[in-house]
């Protein structure tokens, strides 16, 4: 087996030189300003090592990768009652699609598409002011990372609110079915802010480590969630974490993963490591183009597909 250090530095060099970089998301104007030449990668192993290459220390907008953390918190808050309001099936549609909500009575297919994550935000808002719910999410991510410097990029949150017409449509539509318990303005305040969390690849890999360790954070020894819940979140990441590109990611990479339109991907190799990669250019499904390529090459080099014998 090759050394992770060598694989990562080769990957970073190769990815920095590739001309095909995908398209940076511009529907959130602030994200359109990010340099498409960036590439970073970090691996946090269950035995406590952290290996990085490229722009792995630079914070980027984690966007929908944050939905892994809000789902974890919401399950902690309401347990399996969450599944009355959100499904667990891949949608086969784009991340911000509204089409299924009409026939499926305002119940989103899964917690990782926008509609599902908005319901999760609504769950976290119950009994709180938006400011408190946002603070709880940020503190949870800081706790997982063991790093208080993780922050919310207020410019990105504001930019997203200004152009969040589709998310307002999704939220209001779900409210008409009774599946949003707060005004869209308030719930989306929580949603836009958690999407605007900024982290480096190093921090994101550390934050995801509990999912590779049966729910336990190996750095602190704290049990974050039960091993059964960690297993189930990983299952949802595999089946739904890349929207209508989830099948393709499982086919090519073979590990649970969650992407975001900021170009980040968090990948989990249960029992082995958590991986974060960042390259801002996206493919047609809104997933990081070179991030997906790099994950595939890494999984192949290290034999990390969960489907490998
Ligand atoms: N796929 C994503 O990362 C989408 C998240 C983004 N904040 C949105 O609501 O559109």
The portion of residues assigned to helices is 40-55%
Instruction: Give the helix tally.
Output: 13
> Which band does the percent of strand residues land in?
5-15%
Write down the overall mean pLDDT. 97
> Class by helix and strand content?
alpha+beta
Strand neighbour order, sheet with most strands: 3-2-9-8-7
Main sheet characteristics? 5 strands, antiparallel
Return the CATH topology of the largest domain.
Answer: Beta-lactamase
Binding site for substrate: 64, 114, 160, 167, 191, 243, 261
Protein name: Glutaminase
Catalytic activity: L-glutamine + H2O = L-glutamate + NH4(+)
GO molecular function: glutaminase activity
How do the helices and strands line up, and which of them pair or pack?
Layout: H1 4-17, E1 23-24, E2 40-45, E3 50-54, E4 60-61, H2 66-78, H3 99-103, H4 114-125, H5 130-145, E5 151-152, H6 154-162, H7 165-176, H8 184-195, E6 197-199, H9 201-207, H10 209-212, H11 227-240, H12 246-252, E7 257-259, E8 264-269, E9 273-278, E10 281-282, H13 289-302
Antiparallel strand pairs: 1-10, 2-3, 2-9, 4-6, 5-6, 7-8, 8-9
Helix pairs in contact: 1-13, 2-4, 4-7, 4-8, 5-8, 5-9, 6-8, 7-8, 11-12
Bound molecules: glutamine.
């Amino acid at each position: 087996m090759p050394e992770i250090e060598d694989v990562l530095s080769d990957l970073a060099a190769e990815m920095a030189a590739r001309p095909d970089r995908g398209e940076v998301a511009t529907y959130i104007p602030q994200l359109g300003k990010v340099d498409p030449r960036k590439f970073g990668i970090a691996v946090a192993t269950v035995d406590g090592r952290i290996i990085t290459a490229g722009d792995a220390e630079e914070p980027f907008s984690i966007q929908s990768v944050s939905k892994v953390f809000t789902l974890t918190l919401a399950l902690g808050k309401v347990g399996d009652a969450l599944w009355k309001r959100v499904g667990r099936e891949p949608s086969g549609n784009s991340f911000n699609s509204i089409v299924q909500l009409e026939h499926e009575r305002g119940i989103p297919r899964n917690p990782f598409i926008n509609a599902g994550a908005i319901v999760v935000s609504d769950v976290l808002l119950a009994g709180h002011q938006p400011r408190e719910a946002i603070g709880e999410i940020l503190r949870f991510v800081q706790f997982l990372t063991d790093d208080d410097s993780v922050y919310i990029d207020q410019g990105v949150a504001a930019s997203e609110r200004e152009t969040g017409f589709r998310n307002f449509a999704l939220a209001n539509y779900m409210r008409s079915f009774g599946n949003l318990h707060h005004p869209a303005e308030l719930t989306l305040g929580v949603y836009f802010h958690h999407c605007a969390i900024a982290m480096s690849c190093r921090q994101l890999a550390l934050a995801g480590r509990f999912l590779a360790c049966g729910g336990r954070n190996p750095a602190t020894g704290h049990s974050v969630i039960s091993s059964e819940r960690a297993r189930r979140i990983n299952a949802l990441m595999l089946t739904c974490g890349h929207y209508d590109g989830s099948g393709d990611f499982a086919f090519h990479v073979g590990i649970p993963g969650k992407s975001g339109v900021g170009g980040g991907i968090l990948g989990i190799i249960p029992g082995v490591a958590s991986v974060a990669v960042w390259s801002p250019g996206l493919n047609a499904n809104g997933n990081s183009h070179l991030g997906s390529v790099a994950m595939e090459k890494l999984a192949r080099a290290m034999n990390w597909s969960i489907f490998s014998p």
